[in-house]
Specification:
68% of the residues lie in helices and 0% in strands. By secondary structure, it is mainly α. The protein folds into three domains: 86 residues, no CATH class; 149 residues, no CATH class; 95 residues.
């Protein structure tokens, strides 16, 4: 049975994206690399063992051959390491290597507006040493914010007011929406494109430039969050990176801190937990005294990262601190507008995910009770969050880890019911979970239902 062609359309590695920039077949591309490697000669091969560090990925000579095919200097290959230097020849280059100026923030925003025109990717753009460098630059940019100004037809106050009103209306849908995440994403992307157009083509002073940048950062973050709802984690990461640049240029530390936390969640899902910890630490440097809800989110992401690293004591400590922080918010009754979704149910579910990551599904399952027994029947006038279907994935993982296949299939069916038709990225993730169980009738029926939704 075919489980859907969308998985074959996904770019799994930046090397594949680099090949596609040349428009070559795999065979033709491999031939070019072999020719370039032969041209480099035996001298480089002899030097490999003496001068090159132990390579991550292809050998040093092969990497230089690939670089020669793409016109990348040898010193960049050595400085950046594999696979980071490959981004120099893809459309992700601006995310990593543009200087942190007002214009570069606008350029990166403009690049993200074209994300849907490219094939979906399964890898994050900025990781490891590249992420460390980016965080240093982000913190430095916040110390010296540079909002842009531009000559041209002026952006009117009315245009700004209407754009902000529409964006606020979309942000309010995060708690609950009567339309699908895909519809919301299309609307948020339209606002992102409009704000990028205003920044790129219209005239404004420094104050208006700062306001436009912050609105664009909010729009990019919303697009990133909704991309996560749709199961497109790599696309979500790129939107987050654009939002961080824009908010830093606008001089908005609280926004930057929140966007760093959002980016950390992408690294927890498809990246390296050490990178997630680096993002959490950077957020704490950005805002020394975070609001209670943001503090709870920071401790929770920290707990999840430590769980993936196998540090049970650190997980317990961080979750206790997250609960304490959220309790402080309940006393103050002053919700943080940048972290409205962080409440008791969110914290319980996120804690369950941490215990699951630590390999303790029995301890995780009770944390999901609020999700498992909450339903439209109990809240007939409250629509589900766009994140609801995505939120059930760790529940399914927990039930599968406990051998509760029927319960896991029922949970997946419930996720489908919440959105009608799962978007391709999210459907792919659900199919992957049940692929090993298709001999079981419950899993077979679910996988068939997911395939039928997308016409496969």
């Amino acid at each position: 049975m075919h489980t859907g062609p969308d998985s074959s359309d996904i770019v799994l590695h930046p090397w594949e994206m680099a090949r596609e920039t040349l428009g070559l077949s795999r065979v033709a591309y491999a031939r070019l690399i072999v020719e370039a490697r032969n041209d480099l000669g035996a001298v480089l091969t002899a030097l490999d063992s003496r001068t090159a560090p132990a390579p991550k990925g292809p050998g040093h000579t092969t990497q230089l051959a690939i670089a020669r095919v793409h016109g990348v200097p040898e010193d960049e290959v050595l400085r950046m390491g594999w696979p980071h230097w490959l981004h120099l020849v893809t459309d992700d280059a601006a995310l990593l290597y543009r200087r942190w100026t007002p214009q570069s923030a606008i350029d990166v925003l403009r690049n993200t507006a074209r994300l849907d025109d490219a094939r979906p990717r399964a890898y994050l753009a900025v990781t490891g040493r590249a992420l460390e460098s980016l965080l240093k630059k982000a913190l430095s940019a916040l110390d010296h914010p540079q909002p842009p100004s531009r000559n041209g037809s002026p952006v009117t106050p009315e245009t700004l007011a209407h754009a902000e009103a529409r964006l606020e209306a979309l942000e309010l849908q995060e708690a609950g929406a009567r339309v699908t995440p895909a519809v919301l994403y299309a609307a948020a992307r339209a606002e992102h494109q409009l704000l990028t157009h205003l920044l790129s083509r219209c005239g404004y002073d420094f104050a208006t430039g700062a306001r436009l940048l912050l609105l664009a950062a909010r729009a990019a973050t919303l697009c990133g969050w909704l991309s996560g709802c749709l199961g497109e984690e790599a696309r979500a990461e790129r939107y987050c990176l654009a939002a961080i640049r824009a908010a830093a240029a606008a001089g908005a530390p609280r926004h930057v801190a929140c966007y760093l936390v959002e980016l950390a969640s992408r690294h927890l899902l498809v990246g390296d937990p050490k990178d997630a910890l680096a993002l959490v630490n950077a957020a704490r440097v950005t805002v020394r005294r975070p609001a209670p809800q943001l503090a709870a989110a920071l401790y929770t992401r920290e707990a999840q990262a430590f769980a993936l690293l196998g540090d049970g004591k650190a997980v317990t400590r961080a979750l206790i601190r997250a609960t304490t922080a959220l309790t402080a918010q309940e006393r103050d009754r002053t919700p943080d507008p940048l972290a409205l979704n962080v409440d008791e149910t969110w914290l319980a579910s996120a804690s369950g995910t941490a215990w699951l990551y630590l390999g303790r599904p029995k301890k995780a399952l009770p944390c999901f009770v609020g999700l498992l027994y909450d339903s439209p029947a109990t809240r007939p006038h409250t629509p589900p969050s766009p994140y609801s279907a995505r939120q059930f994935l760790p529940v399914v993982d927990t039930q599968l880890a406990l051998g509760e296949l029927d319960a896991a299939a029922a949970t997946a069916h419930r996720a489908i019911a919440l959105v009608g038709i799962l978007p391709p990225g999210l459907a792919r993730q659900y199919r992957e979970r049940f692929a090993a169980h298709v001999a079981d009738p419950a899993a077979h029926d679910l996988v068939e239902a997911l395939a039928e939704q997308h016409g496969h």
